Amino acid sequence: MADRRSNNRFDTRTVGKLLRLLKGDVAFIILALLISLVSIVASLYINVLIGRAIDCMVSEGNVDFAGVRNSCVIIAVCVVISAVFAYVSKMILDRIAFKTVKRFRDSLFGKIQRVSVSYIDSHTPGDMISRLINDIEQISDGMILSFAELFSGVVTIAGTLVFMFMLDWRITLIVLFATPFTLLVARFIANSTYKYFTRQTKDNASLTSAVEESITGISVLRAFSMEDRRRALLKEEGERLKKSSTSATFFSSTVMPTTRIINGIIYAAVGVAGALTVIKNGSVPGGLTVGLLSSFLAYATRFSTPFNDISGVMAEFQGAVAGAKRVFDVLETPDETDPEDSLDDVESKGGVLIENVDFSYDKNVPLIKNFNLEAKPGQRVAIVGPTGCGKTTFINLLMRFYDVDAGSISIDGTDVRNITRDCVHRNYGMVLQETWLRSGTVRDNIAMGRPGATDEEIEQAAKLAHAHSFIVKLPDGYNTEVSNELAGLSYGQKQLICIARLMLTSPPMLILDEATSSIDTRTEIKVQSGFKKLMRGRTSFIVAHRLSTIKNCDLIVVMRDGKIEEQGTHEELLGHEGFYKELYESQNN
Known about the structure:
The strands form three sheets. The protein has a six-stranded mixed beta sheet. It has a four-stranded antiparallel beta sheet with strand order 2-1-4-5, with helices on one face. The chain has helices at about 1-10, 10-20, 25-60, 65-115, 115-120, 125-145, 145-165, 170-215, 220-225, 225-255, 255-280, 290-330, 390-400, 420-425, 440-445, 455-465, 470, 490-505, 520-535, 570-575, 580-589; strands at about 350-360, 370-375, 380-385, 405-410, 415, 430, 440, 480, 510-515, 540-545, 555-560, 565-570. The protein is about 65% helix and about 10% strand.
């Protein structure tokens, strides 16, 4: 029951966090409020002037043209003042709004770079994209861009009350007596809509994830003739989003008509009471006149309008709060940190010692158990084994994408947990089976690890990777725009660019995780010769399924079910008549 109530109520904690984002802009907000106050007072005073002009025209005897003319001149001045000051106020608030949204987006993107890999792995790319784009846009539309309207509404209510009390305090009490009913209705509807906006943001993220998967996996979906099933899934996600969006929109849309009905009743009551007052006291000096009654009716309308607007803003604000809660969930995730005394400058010689390591992604499902391995400086170590035996997990542990549950991994005698992750990453060069190219030129992608590399060094790295020959045939050569998603490059060509990237960085240790899996055999033989030059004197870890590519390694580690089954040279393992020999013979039969 408590949880259900919390889902329906305004999330005040999230609102407080949103408001704290504006802390540095308080001076500008106060300035905008003061400017808005001048604009609104000027616009409200126009109603008094109109009432005076009406009295000048309906007075007994001749029409007071001079009085009408003076009122019109002052009205024109007030209109100009109100318009100019309103523009300046909105400009200041919009500037604060967009700056806040930019700060929000920069903070979220920066946080994504700092959280652990495990946190990223626990969320779909579509969900993270939805938080970064859709939810922040919702904050902008629902909170920030309505800020000026909220300011205007509050000041208009206060100013209108002052003018109404000046005209007739008794009729003003009628307006004030009925106002709480408007507020209660608006608050009830606003609280009720929060759960629907929360559901809408989640459904939006699910649809974004489904669309992202459908686009990135279009080739696989077509190969398995899954278009109809995928369309059905997207239709189901779309229907779910439509229902939650319809509910959110419906309930938020009831604010306006409901409050306007109440305000219409208030307007009628004020009109009747005002007319009776004019009839009774119209001839009394200083009493309520026909012109001032028209002014009062105008103020009664102006007084109720901001409540309608603010109610609409609050309904939109529900969506902003729901989106902000999802964004804050990421922003409040602890950063991936290193101990304060971690080493940040370790030039590794390449000695890696793994002792009694246990690790699992799910603590209830053991994966790597009691893993022990020593790689001496300059050794080429191959990791082989069936799918799911823990090879890629072993690479993740080497790179400190994850920390071990038990045991230790050391580089040159120093536990990697006492070395910053950035330092560990700098000492390894890695090429994965899964290629990744950033949006940019071929040159930019090769030089990603060494931004200051010269054109000659980039081309030399491409030649070592045997990528130069196809790169120069591209429309703009090394200046050809590429990305991970754009067509135009084969998977093998992308992998060669990634290999060239590694060749250029020339790190002290190497990790090759199926680095040539998408390359034809002829090119692979040439690339392997380039790898031999690169690996000379460097500790290298090579994950491979094709055992023919690792026969010359100094040490071959055979894994099965998260443990080391065997280790030794190619000849030694064949002589053992063990699991390695089974794997090797199965590939050569």
